[in-house]
Each structure stands twice: as structure tokens, then as C-alpha cells.
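Q: Fold this one first, please.
A: Sequence and structure below.
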Amino acid sequence: MRISSLCLAACAGVAVQSLGSTDSCHSRPAPPCLACGVDDVDGTQLPLKCRDLTNNETVPSRWEGPGRCAGRYCIYSNRGFANGRGIVAITTAASFAILRTLKETSTDQTDPAPPYYLAPVPGKGLGLIANRTLHRGDALMIEPPAVLVHRGLLETVPPATQHPLLDEAITNLPAARRETFLAQMGHFQGHRVASILATNTFQMDIGGPDGHHFGSFPEVSRLNHDCRPNVAFRLDYKTLTHRTTVVRDVRPGEELSITYLDSAEPRARRMHRARQAWGFTCGCSQCRLADAAAAKSDRRLEEMKAIEARLADFGDDGVNAGLLRRLVRLYKDERMEVEMGGAYTLVALNYNMLGDAKNAVKYARLAREAVVIEGGEEAGDAEAMSMLAEAPKEHFTWRARVR
């Protein structure tokens, strides 16, 4: 039960929509209506007249800066980034040296007809709705950030110095990208840009000894929260992109969602976290369960943690196939498709330790699929599960529990 890639985190008392866990980001022009501005009318987001905010300028990708600084944090910008989408960073000289070497993702690499549209969602404002059937493993978005801010700026620089720097940084974005960024909801009072960042950023570590940043991905911010989401996300630091993938079949007309917090926490803790960090009361189907059903769900989550602890203990002589089947059943009953990788990995390893090569191969393949969805091809367990699936009897775990 972990959020290995869940970069939703709160930083130094600053709540962030995709600032929520303490773990330490589609790259195409935003489709019409996805990037339009919104009015806030009595707490309800309403779309303005939609317009295509695609940047039509042909601008070469070239970094500029440093511009204005606050101590060691300076503005760097690239108006041609990602085929003219543009990006601005407030960071240190050392981190910028790393940032400029990262591989740039082209907007030409993605489907120009996205499988979703923007629409009002009762109780949530605007959300993304599937416009066709989607299946587990389907890619949804590959998005570069519009704004990247060094964590140190938000944690150590006083607002009186920080806010003018943020305002100036945003002016370095192309007009279309700037409007898309400013159209995002800000849940906190005060400075507009700071509120948007406090509501809509993901943690990103770009590398180096001081590489911790927060990235704002305006298109991704349209994905609302659900404690049992149908979309997983991960951050690809090598290409500076936020990638989302469908984790279960989705019907046309169904809302697409990610989770902002740890889905494996009990309901009361999840709801407290949502209120504390993002200022909303979670109304997803899992949190709306009747008290008796919610208590049953919480007991399942506790049992899942207990079983996983036993499976990770190679000295536990009581592990058997029934326990493995029970863990898989619990995950399915809890609709935890968004984080199956770790569970399937433990199940595959333990079937192999029990000398059941057939099930070891079955679950190693399922584990690899889930790990890639959740963490990408480069995730360590992906290769490990490929090796187990290929030659279970040659794996170091073979019959380890029956010797």
C-alpha cells in the first residue's frame, strides 16, 4: 500500500492539488474547450465562450534567462518549448543547467483528437468526460508543464518577494499558454498565481542534489479526484512530462479521474486529507458509502496491508495459495486498479516461492503490465517481473517457502 508515483503533496503548509503525498511531472495543443477560461459563479465553474487557444506562432525552442531573481531563484523561459506551447521556470542556476538538458517532447507525438471533452460535472465544476470506449492501458495524456517552480522558492522566500516574481514569470509564457494557466481554479484566498500553484501542481524531482520542484500542468488539472479513479498518472522526469493511462474500461459519457491522495487510507483519513489540502469534501462513490459499507471497506484495506506484510516476510511459514487468492480478491473488491503493481508483484513472487510456476508466470505478467502503467517501462519491478515470467524455476525465489 504505497503511492510510489503519487506526487500529490503538500509543501511547507502550502496545499497543492497535486501537492498531497510526501513522495518526491499529452503533449499536444489543448483541444478547443479544454483550455477555455471559466467564470466562478456562486462557487460553480461555468465555461466561457470556447476558443482554440493553440499557439500559432512558430518560435524556436530556446531557453532565455536568467531574468528577474529573488536570491538564488531566477526566471528562465522557453517560448518555443514543446512546439510553441512554452514553459517558464523559477529555479536555481544549478537546476537550470539540468533542466535545459532534459529531452523535449513534441506535441506532434500525440493524437490530435483526444478521447474526452470538457463538461460540467455536478458538485465538481468542470471535468473531463470520455467520448469513446477506453480500455485498460490506453494512453490518455502526455503533457509538459507550463510552469516549474523550485520548492525552495515556495518554502523560504517571503510572499512579498515571491509574488512579484511569480507574476513576472507568467508573463514569459506565450499568450495561449498563459491564458490556459490562469484559467485554472485556485482554492485559496490571496495572490492569484500563488493560489493556482497551491491547488494545481505536482512534485517533480529533475535530478541533482537540489532538484525538487513543483510543476503545473493546466490540461491535467481538469481531471477531478476520485478515491477509486479510472486513470493512473506518473511523471516522466527524463522528458519532463505528466503521463496518464486508463486503468479500467471506461464507457462513453463516464468521467475520467485520478486520485489526489492515498487510496489505501481509510475513508475518514482520506476525507480529512481532501479537506485539509484541497479544501473540498470528497463526494466520490467510495466516500459516499453508507457507514456500514464504509466500515467494511476500511476493514478490507487493513486486511490488505496485513496480508502484504506477511507476503513480504519470507520467514512466514503460514503463507499459502489461499492467502494469495484472498489478497487479489480484496484488491478487486476495493476497485484498486490504480495501484495493482505492488500487489501483483508480491503474489507472483510468493506463488513462485510455493513452487506454483503456472500462477507465478500469470501474476508476473499481470504485475509487469500494472507496474508499467503506474511507473513506466523504466520502473525496476517491470524488468524483474519479465525475468520471473520468462524462467520461474530459474528465479532465486523458486520454492523458497517449501525447502
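Q: Good. Now the second chain.
A: Here it is, same layout.
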Amino acid sequence: MSKDNFLKNSLILTLVNSTTGILKFIFAIILSKKLGSEGMGLYGLIMPIYDLFCCLICGGLIAAISKESSIYFSKKDFKNLNKSVKTCLSFVIIWACIIALLVFINSNYIGKFIIKDSRSIYSIKAICPALVFVGLSSILKGYFYGTEKVKIPAFIDIFEKTIRITVVVIVINLFSLKEITKTVTSVYIALSLGELLSFIFLYVFYKIERNKKYNFYSYSNKLEGRAQLLFNILLVSIPLCINEFLTTTIYATSTLITPRRLVSAGIIHSEALSMIGKFSGMSLSIIFFPFIVINSMSIVLIPDLSKSLYNKDYFSLENRIKEVITISFLIGISTLVVCISIPNVLGNLFFNRNDLSQYIKLASLSAPFSYVCASTYSILNGINKQGILLRNSVLTAIEELILIYILTGIPEINILGYGISLIITSITGVILNLREIKKICYLEFSPINLLIYILVGTLTGYILIVLNNIITSTFVLKSMFLIITGFTMFFTIITLLTKHISNK
């Protein structure tokens, strides 16, 4: 993938994912109003269970298929490319149906004894169809990412999110749902419906792409057997699946023990769920909204690095890694600056709440490290260090579990322990990952540039605080102006200073 294609595809995904992110944000705002903070807490307890079984079904598949697809596509080996996709679809539909059936049968046990909230049982049953469709969709998304058709899954994702929001609003309003059990279940039914529609559209576009004229001509000297093609993909995806499953299991455990530790700290269960909803369901949604850019880069980064390794183009490999790490850190710093300068504005704008400021401030301290950490995980994946990725992910996940268990049980800290653990584990992940990446390529980051980033961030934060105090416009316009000004000012000053230094 050329630099132009990398930047072009990253930009396309960022723009489209920004739309998706806005839709997710709107969805979170709607949920907060329809479910309340307690309902958001319950919704947040079920989601890790869903993520856990998604990892078991299709963990690592998108990355594995995109890597294989990019290699076949670069060689114009369309026969083996399409045969790989067809083989994986057959394998996953069987595997996903087995897992979904087991989840449905054991939903009562999961709800009562794992989540420890019987109100979650119907929601667990509702996610079972989604597990099958997510598994199948992951294969087709990997195909499109590997063949540089990133716009197709991106636009389908927008459509899916729009349908999901619409269904939730219609169902809750049409049936006047007030009870938490019914409203949360309706949200997960909408999730399954959205994943079904997403798979249908992905498959239709895949058939169109597959049947294009160039797919009938392949430069392959040998047509691989189905077993070999499946083995090639599983060889990459299984370590990633184990990694995602183990880390998601630990993270799910962390999420599930949080309300119990808060209760042990003297907080009643309903209030504990409310605190979780405000921190993880609302505040973290604000902090990680710019993460859309990181996610977009990561999607096209993995096949890009794989192709550079395959072609032994180590110069491009090194430059791409430096570029991605720098961009991730700058986005994290700018997010920290905006969130720590105007936290009350953000809480009121997006969730109409005045009690999120301390959560937003604390969580924002993790942004620079969390963003870089996520990028370094994608880099390790792209340079075929799945074993190292597994080890580091598990270590940081265990660290987070221990920290959450200890900190959230302290009455004076309670839910803030969640944020403290996020900061510490993100720093740990960055240190571990960069140490391994440096073994493959030379990385050097200028201390002068780091000092510039900090000074520009401090200046931007100070200006935002001043503007927030002197501007008397309507709240929404003022808030949007402050947010846009914060990010624009930071990156404009950084760009001008960087160019000035490089010209010298």
C-alpha cells in the first residue's frame, strides 16, 4: 500500500468513522436519557459478555483476512483470495452457531451467577443472533480492508448504526417502555437487527466485487486447497483470538467485579451501577470519541505493514511506525487538553449533566497513553509479533484487574479507581510495546518535540479556560466553538512550529 493510499484510506475511514462515532455518541445520549445512569450501568455490564463471545467466535479474523487478502491482492491471485473468503465463511457459520446456541441455553446461568443481575437474562438471549452475524461480517470486512475497498464496510457501518438508533427510539417510544429490563433488552434486540442488516449488505457488495471481470483472471500458479487456506488464516487469527479472548475475559471480569467492589466500599448496588454508568458509559465516551482516528489508522495499518515486511521495504516500515505513533500521541494530548480545560462544558453538552467533571478530568489523563498504546498493539500485529502482543495484552489486563479490585474497594477512591487503573495500565502497555517494536526498527523521538507538545498543550488549555469565562453566547454554540477551537489551535500551532524547526 503506497503512502498516498495509506493516507487516503485512513482519511476516508476517519471521515466515515467520524460519522459513525457521532451516531454512537447520539446513541449513548439517547440511552442515557431512556435508561438513566442505572440502566446505562446494566447495559455496560452485559456488553463485556457480548464482546467476550464475539472474541471467541471471530477474534483476530479481520486482521488475519486483511493480511492474507492484501498479499493475494497485490499478486492478483484472485482465485485463492475468493476461495479463502468462501472457506472461512463456511467454517465461521458452523462455529458461530454452536457458540450462540450455547450462550442461549446458558443465559439464565450467565445472568444470575456471572453478571449477578437477573434483569440481564433477556438481553443475553437477544444478543445470540448478533454473535453469528458479527462472525460472518468480520470475514467480509477483512476482505474489503485487505483489497483497499475500505469505503464499503465504512458506509455500511453508518447505515447499521442509523438503523439501530432508529429501532431503539421507535420501540421504546411505541411501547412506552419504562422498566429497565425491557428497555435494555430492546437495545440489544436492535443490536442483533443491525448486525443482520450489516452482514446482508456486506455480502451483497462482496458478491458484486467478486463477480467483477478482474476476478476471473488470476495470476496464481497454484490453487491452494481449502484446508491450507484455512490453516494460513487460522495461523494468524488463533494467536490474536487467544489474545483478545484472554484480555476480554480479564476486562469483563474487571467490569463485573467493579459493582461488587463498590458495594463492599459501602455503596448500595443501584448507586454503584449509576456511578459505573456515569464513568464508563458517559465520561469515557467523551474521552475516546477522537479514538476514531486511531481506529481508522489501525485498520489500514496492519495490511500496510504486512505488505512492507513481505516486500522487505524496511525504510517505509520504520517511517510508517514513527508517523502513526506521533499522530496518536498528538491526538491524545489534544484530547487531554480539551477535556481537562472544559470538563463541565462537555458533560452538559453531551449528557446534560453537571456531575461528570471529575470523571472526565481523571479519564482524560489516560488519553495520550491509551491512544499510543492502541496504535502500538496494531503495529505489533502488523509486524507479525502476535505472540508478544498476546503476552503484553494479558499482562496489562491482569494489572488492570488487580488495580480495579484494590482501588475500587477503597471508600475514598471508589469508582475513580477505574480511571487510575486505566492510566497506569496504558503507560505499562506503551512501555512494553515500544520495547519490542524497537527490536525490529530504529525509533527515536525528539525530547525537544515532546517539550513543544507539552507547552503548546498548556497554552491551548489556558486559552480555552479564558474563552470559556468570557464568551456569553448560547451554550451549544459556545461549547462547539470551544471544542473546535481547542483541537484546531493545538494542531495548527504544532504544524507551524514543526515546519519552522524542520526548515532550520
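Q: Anything worth noting on the second one?
A: The chain is about 85% helix and 0% strand.
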